Amino acid sequence: MRKLYEGKAKIVYETEDPNKVILFFKDTASAFDGVKKAEIKGKGELNNTISSILFEVLEKRGVKTHYIRKLSEREMLVWRAERFPVEVVVRNVATGSIVKRLGIKEGTKFKRPLLEFFMKDDKLHDPMVCEEHITLLGLAPEDAIPLMKETALKVNEVLREVFSKGGIILVDFKLEFGRLPDGSVAVVDEITPDTMRLWDEKTGEKLDKDRFRFDLGDLLEGYKRVLDSLRGS
Length: 233
What we know:
alpha+beta, 233 residues, 13 strands
Protein backbone atom coordinates (compact mmCIF):
# COMPACT_ATOMS: atom_id res chain seq x y z
CA MET A 1 0.00 0.00 0.00
CA ARG A 2 1.27 3.46 -0.85
CA LYS A 3 1.34 5.96 1.99
CA LEU A 4 -0.64 9.07 1.13
CA TYR A 5 -0.19 11.05 4.33
CA GLU A 6 1.22 10.71 7.83
CA GLY A 7 -0.03 12.79 10.72
CA LYS A 8 0.68 12.85 14.44
CA ALA A 9 -1.67 9.97 15.27
CA LYS A 10 -2.48 8.21 11.98
CA ILE A 11 -1.16 7.16 8.60
CA VAL A 12 -3.39 7.19 5.50
CA TYR A 13 -2.82 4.49 2.87
CA GLU A 14 -4.36 4.15 -0.57
CA THR A 15 -6.33 1.05 -1.63
CA GLU A 16 -7.15 -0.48 -5.01
CA ASP A 17 -10.33 1.62 -4.96
CA PRO A 18 -9.44 5.30 -5.51
CA ASN A 19 -12.50 6.32 -3.47
CA LYS A 20 -11.42 4.43 -0.36
CA VAL A 21 -8.42 4.74 1.96
CA ILE A 22 -7.12 2.96 5.05
CA LEU A 23 -6.47 4.77 8.33
CA PHE A 24 -3.69 3.20 10.37
CA PHE A 25 -3.73 4.26 14.03
CA LYS A 26 -0.26 4.87 15.48
CA ASP A 27 0.89 4.47 19.07
CA THR A 28 2.16 8.05 19.13
CA ALA A 29 0.77 10.42 21.73
CA SER A 30 1.35 14.13 21.19
CA ALA A 31 0.29 17.38 22.79
CA PHE A 32 0.86 21.12 22.56
CA ASP A 33 1.10 21.12 18.74
CA GLY A 34 3.53 18.21 18.77
CA VAL A 35 5.95 19.68 21.32
CA LYS A 36 5.33 16.81 23.74
CA LYS A 37 5.51 13.31 22.24
CA ALA A 38 5.71 9.71 23.35
CA GLU A 39 5.19 6.21 21.99
CA ILE A 40 2.61 4.33 24.07
CA LYS A 41 2.23 0.72 22.99
CA GLY A 42 -1.42 -0.23 22.51
CA LYS A 43 -2.80 3.29 22.07
CA GLY A 44 -3.42 2.81 18.36
CA GLU A 45 -5.46 -0.35 18.89
CA LEU A 46 -7.59 1.30 21.56
CA ASN A 47 -8.28 4.39 19.46
CA ASN A 48 -9.15 2.37 16.37
CA THR A 49 -11.63 0.26 18.34
CA ILE A 50 -13.19 3.22 20.17
CA SER A 51 -13.51 5.25 16.98
CA SER A 52 -15.03 2.30 15.09
CA ILE A 53 -17.65 1.78 17.79
CA LEU A 54 -18.58 5.47 17.88
CA PHE A 55 -18.76 5.80 14.10
CA GLU A 56 -21.06 2.79 13.97
CA VAL A 57 -23.29 4.31 16.65
CA LEU A 58 -23.46 7.62 14.78
CA GLU A 59 -24.24 5.95 11.46
CA LYS A 60 -27.11 4.05 13.09
CA ARG A 61 -28.43 7.36 14.43
CA GLY A 62 -28.41 8.97 10.99
CA VAL A 63 -25.11 10.88 11.13
CA LYS A 64 -23.16 10.74 7.86
CA THR A 65 -19.50 9.75 8.36
CA HIS A 66 -16.60 8.51 6.22
CA TYR A 67 -16.52 5.20 8.11
CA ILE A 68 -16.94 1.93 6.19
CA ARG A 69 -15.64 -0.76 8.53
CA LYS A 70 -12.89 -1.82 10.90
CA LEU A 71 -10.28 -3.89 9.05
CA SER A 72 -7.91 -4.95 11.82
CA GLU A 73 -6.72 -4.00 15.29
CA ARG A 74 -5.10 -0.83 13.94
CA GLU A 75 -6.77 -0.27 10.58
CA MET A 76 -10.05 1.28 9.52
CA LEU A 77 -11.46 1.48 5.97
CA VAL A 78 -13.03 4.85 5.17
CA TRP A 79 -14.26 6.83 2.20
CA ARG A 80 -11.66 9.16 0.76
CA ALA A 81 -12.57 12.74 1.64
CA GLU A 82 -11.59 16.26 0.74
CA ARG A 83 -11.04 17.49 4.28
CA PHE A 84 -11.91 21.03 5.32
CA PRO A 85 -9.15 22.69 7.42
CA VAL A 86 -11.64 23.53 10.17
CA GLU A 87 -12.25 21.96 13.57
CA VAL A 88 -15.75 22.18 15.01
CA VAL A 89 -15.62 22.12 18.80
CA VAL A 90 -18.65 21.47 20.99
CA ARG A 91 -18.40 22.20 24.72
CA ASN A 92 -20.72 21.04 27.48
CA VAL A 93 -18.48 21.94 30.40
CA ALA A 94 -15.87 24.70 30.62
CA THR A 95 -12.26 23.57 30.59
CA GLY A 96 -9.15 24.04 28.49
CA SER A 97 -8.70 27.06 26.24
CA ILE A 98 -12.10 28.63 26.89
CA VAL A 99 -11.25 28.98 30.59
CA LYS A 100 -8.12 30.93 29.67
CA ARG A 101 -9.79 32.98 26.92
CA LEU A 102 -12.94 34.04 28.76
CA GLY A 103 -12.10 33.58 32.41
CA ILE A 104 -14.88 31.08 32.96
CA LYS A 105 -14.50 28.93 36.06
CA GLU A 106 -13.20 25.44 35.37
CA GLY A 107 -16.01 22.88 35.46
CA THR A 108 -18.84 25.34 34.76
CA LYS A 109 -21.70 23.53 33.01
CA PHE A 110 -23.13 25.42 30.05
CA LYS A 111 -26.91 25.86 29.88
CA ARG A 112 -26.74 24.59 26.32
CA PRO A 113 -23.89 23.20 24.17
CA LEU A 114 -21.42 25.84 23.01
CA LEU A 115 -20.13 25.47 19.44
CA GLU A 116 -16.89 27.04 18.20
CA PHE A 117 -14.76 26.90 15.03
CA PHE A 118 -10.97 26.71 14.82
CA MET A 119 -8.72 26.81 11.77
CA LYS A 120 -6.46 23.75 11.51
CA ASP A 121 -2.95 25.15 11.43
CA ASP A 122 -0.28 24.00 13.90
CA LYS A 123 2.01 26.90 13.03
CA LEU A 124 -0.71 29.35 14.06
CA HIS A 125 -1.77 27.14 17.00
CA ASP A 126 -5.22 26.48 15.53
CA PRO A 127 -6.73 29.97 15.92
CA MET A 128 -10.41 30.43 16.67
CA VAL A 129 -12.42 31.65 13.66
CA CYS A 130 -16.00 32.70 12.97
CA GLU A 131 -18.29 31.76 10.08
CA GLU A 132 -17.21 34.86 8.14
CA HIS A 133 -13.57 33.78 8.39
CA ILE A 134 -14.45 30.30 7.15
CA THR A 135 -16.29 31.70 4.14
CA LEU A 136 -13.87 34.50 3.20
CA LEU A 137 -10.75 32.32 3.64
CA GLY A 138 -12.35 29.44 1.76
CA LEU A 139 -11.82 27.00 4.62
CA ALA A 140 -15.12 25.25 3.89
CA PRO A 141 -18.00 25.78 1.44
CA GLU A 142 -20.43 28.38 2.74
CA ASP A 143 -23.40 26.08 2.21
CA ALA A 144 -21.71 23.37 4.30
CA ILE A 145 -21.42 25.48 7.47
CA PRO A 146 -25.06 25.10 8.64
CA LEU A 147 -24.83 21.34 8.09
CA MET A 148 -21.57 21.14 10.04
CA LYS A 149 -23.16 22.98 12.97
CA GLU A 150 -26.32 20.89 12.91
CA THR A 151 -24.34 17.64 12.65
CA ALA A 152 -21.93 18.58 15.45
CA LEU A 153 -24.83 19.26 17.81
CA LYS A 154 -26.48 15.97 16.81
CA VAL A 155 -23.21 14.12 17.48
CA ASN A 156 -23.05 15.80 20.87
CA GLU A 157 -26.57 14.64 21.69
CA VAL A 158 -25.82 11.05 20.70
CA LEU A 159 -22.41 10.81 22.39
CA ARG A 160 -23.59 12.41 25.64
CA GLU A 161 -26.28 9.75 25.83
CA VAL A 162 -23.85 6.92 25.03
CA PHE A 163 -21.20 7.97 27.54
CA SER A 164 -23.73 8.80 30.25
CA LYS A 165 -24.82 5.15 30.27
CA GLY A 166 -21.25 4.23 31.19
CA GLY A 167 -20.96 6.84 33.93
CA ILE A 168 -18.84 9.24 31.87
CA ILE A 169 -19.38 12.96 31.23
CA LEU A 170 -18.73 14.18 27.68
CA VAL A 171 -17.04 17.48 28.50
CA ASP A 172 -16.14 18.59 24.98
CA PHE A 173 -14.92 17.25 21.64
CA LYS A 174 -13.77 18.32 18.22
CA LEU A 175 -14.94 17.11 14.83
CA GLU A 176 -13.56 17.40 11.33
CA PHE A 177 -15.64 17.41 8.18
CA GLY A 178 -14.98 16.75 4.51
CA ARG A 179 -16.61 16.04 1.17
CA LEU A 180 -16.94 12.39 0.20
CA PRO A 181 -16.69 10.97 -3.35
CA ASP A 182 -20.50 11.10 -3.71
CA GLY A 183 -20.44 14.85 -3.03
CA SER A 184 -21.93 14.67 0.46
CA VAL A 185 -20.43 16.39 3.51
CA ALA A 186 -19.62 14.02 6.37
CA VAL A 187 -17.78 13.66 9.66
CA VAL A 188 -14.22 12.45 8.95
CA ASP A 189 -10.95 11.72 10.79
CA GLU A 190 -11.49 10.01 14.19
CA ILE A 191 -13.59 10.18 17.35
CA THR A 192 -11.40 9.04 20.24
CA PRO A 193 -10.17 10.16 23.68
CA ASP A 194 -7.51 12.03 21.68
CA THR A 195 -10.24 14.32 20.34
CA MET A 196 -12.60 14.43 23.34
CA ARG A 197 -12.51 15.29 27.01
CA LEU A 198 -14.17 12.64 29.14
CA TRP A 199 -14.56 12.78 32.93
CA ASP A 200 -15.66 10.11 35.36
CA GLU A 201 -19.15 11.07 36.49
CA LYS A 202 -18.54 10.28 40.16
CA THR A 203 -14.91 11.20 40.75
CA GLY A 204 -14.23 13.77 38.01
CA GLU A 205 -11.14 11.80 36.98
CA LYS A 206 -9.99 12.65 33.46
CA LEU A 207 -10.04 9.66 31.10
CA ASP A 208 -8.77 11.37 27.93
CA LYS A 209 -5.55 12.77 26.47
CA ASP A 210 -5.30 15.30 29.29
CA ARG A 211 -3.79 12.40 31.25
CA PHE A 212 -0.82 12.62 28.86
CA ARG A 213 -0.86 16.41 28.46
CA PHE A 214 -0.63 17.11 32.17
CA ASP A 215 0.84 13.85 33.54
CA LEU A 216 -2.38 12.90 35.34
CA GLY A 217 -1.98 9.15 35.14
CA ASP A 218 -1.56 6.21 32.80
CA LEU A 219 -3.02 7.06 29.38
CA LEU A 220 -3.91 3.49 28.46
CA GLU A 221 -5.79 2.97 31.72
CA GLY A 222 -8.05 5.92 30.94
CA TYR A 223 -8.66 4.83 27.35
CA LYS A 224 -9.40 1.26 28.43
CA ARG A 225 -12.02 2.54 30.86
CA VAL A 226 -13.63 4.50 28.04
CA LEU A 227 -13.70 1.40 25.82
CA ASP A 228 -15.10 -0.74 28.65
CA SER A 229 -17.89 1.78 29.19
CA LEU A 230 -18.81 1.65 25.49
CA ARG A 231 -18.84 -2.14 25.44
CA GLY A 232 -20.97 -2.17 28.56
CA SER A 233 -23.54 0.27 27.18
